[in-house]
Design brief:
This protein is an alpha+beta fold. The chain is 51% helix and 15% strand. Bound molecules: flavin-adenine dinucleotide. Flavin-adenine dinucleotide binds next to β1, β3 and α11.
Length: 386
């Protein structure tokens, strides 16, 4: 049983995160969205403000805070409408850093974690390939042993933080005949020869979050860069994915709160037919419906956060959190945009960004359909085709 988190201290931390985001992010966010990427220095700024990898243990350069503190950073980014940045930070702090904390040896942790906490090193994780998304076992990137090295060849796509990444956790086949048992993970230093970045993909939303193609061409990486044991990569991915899915769910809940807050305020200000928008029965019912949807999901995701902290969160339950919360986030963003009328469809009103940024939450980290398959398997067993 872990110690319960002091909620007053957590609230103080939340306030400090909000203040930092208001000064360091809000004034420039619009410009970053137009540029299609955040400046590299932002990572150092976030690190200096104590907002990166906050639950990394102290002996690895972090402050060893409970997981809930890391969730708070993502929640505030999402609630305040910085959807792209919430994705970037989540990948760095809540996906890449935990792989290192959980699977890395002392040398690997020392090499990367302090830099990830300070923002000196940006982390990314590369599983997806052009021919292997939901079907990860179809990946073709290979790592062939050559003395004290592995030679990496292949390509990845849709990699968050790909443009700024200093280190990428790459999933590659070390034994192409062995299916899932032939996949291994590597901590790839992007300054080594043989690594190249492709395009920063032009997406419909989350513009300032860079999403890239990555290429490995006869890239020689030391055998010491293998994360965990050879052939265990798929097992590790399955073990770490529940945290990623839970955090995506938490971001979805927080983003829905942001959408609701701005819509409630708008409905109380906008006048039509000689009365406030908030007095029309449809508006009242829509807000009631969405607030209820939000609260049910918040309660469930908060329960999953506690279960994760206690080491009790299983993969199907984490999938339920992601599936339910991100579908709710999209329902709420759509319903809220509708209440803004034509203004909601213009980029001048932030609800339009919440609407478009929400959409990818049902896709990355495992699509809603894949989540349903995982949940169904836990209830009904495997389907015969699988
Ligand atoms: C903005 C963004 C950021 C991303 N960041 C990363 C990252 O940092 N690292 C990384 O490795 N990847 C990343 N991804 C990739 C993401 O995880 C994949 O796009 C996702 O897993 C889906 O894979 P796919 O795009 O190949 O779609 P496909 O797998 O081709 O899916 C096509 C359709 O088939 C459905 N489908 C799949 N399996 C089943 C099934 N069993 N039953 C029924 N239907 C099914 C899907 O739900 C979907 O509707 C990112 C993607 C985006 C868009």
């Amino acid at each position: 049983m872990t110690n319960p988190v002091d909620q007053q201290e957590l609230a103080l931390f939340r306030d400090s995160v909000i203040k930092a985001l208001e000064t360091e992010v809000a004034p420039q966010y619009e410009a970053w969205e137009k540029n299609g990427i955040v400046p590299r220095e932002l990572w150092n700024t976030l690190g200096n403000a104590g907002m990166l990898c906050v639950d990394v243990p102290e002996d690895c350069g972090g402050c060893g805070a409970p997981f809930q503190y890391s969730v708070v950073v993502g929640e505030e980014l999402a609630r305040l409408g910085f959807g792209a940045l919430s994705t970037n930070v989540m990948v760095h702090s809540d996906i890449v850093a935990p792989y290192l904390s959980h699977l890395g040896n002392e040398e690997q942790k020392r090499q990367w974690l302090p830099g990830m906490v300070s923002g000196e090193a940006v982390g990314a994780i590369a599983m997806t390939e052009p021919g292997a998304g939901s079907d990860l076992q179809a990946m073709r990137t290979s790592a062939v042993k050559d003395g004290e090295n592995y030679i990496l060849n292949g390509s990845k796509t849709f990699i968050t933080n790909g443009q700024h990444a200093d280190m990428v956790i790459v999933a590659a086949k070390t034994d192409p005949q062995a299916g899932a048992k032939g996949i291994s993970l590597f901590l790839v230093d992007t300054s080594l020869p043989g690594f190249s970045k492709g395009r920063n993909l032009d997406k419909i939303g989350q513009h300032s979050g860079d999403t890239s193609e990555l290429f490995f061409s006869d890239m020689r990486i030391p055998a010491s860069a293998m994360l965990g044991e050879e052939g265990q990569g798929f097992v590790y991915l399955m073990r770490e994915l529940p945290r990623e899915r839970l955090v995506i769910g938490a971001l979805g809940v927080a983003a829905a709160r942001g959408s609701l807050d701005m819509t409630i305020q708008y409905a109380q200000e906008r006048e039509l037919f000689g009365q406030k928008l908030s007095l029309l029965q449809n508006t009242r019912f829509e807000i009631a419906r969405m607030e209820t949807d939000y609260r049910i999901n918040k309660a469930f995701v908060d329960q999953c956060i506690r279960e994760y902290e206690e080491g009790k969160l299983d993969a199907p339950t984490a999938s339920m959190a992601k599936y339910s919360a991100t579908e709710m986030q999209c329902r709420v963003a759509d319903g809220c945009l509708q209440l803004f009328g034509g203004y909601g469809y213009t980029t001048e009103y932030p609800i339009s960004r919440n609407f478009i940024d929400a959409r990818v939450q049902r896709i990355y980290g495992g699509t809603s359909e894949v989540m349903k398959e995982i949940i169904a398997r836990s209830v009904l067993g495997r389907s015969p085709q699988k």
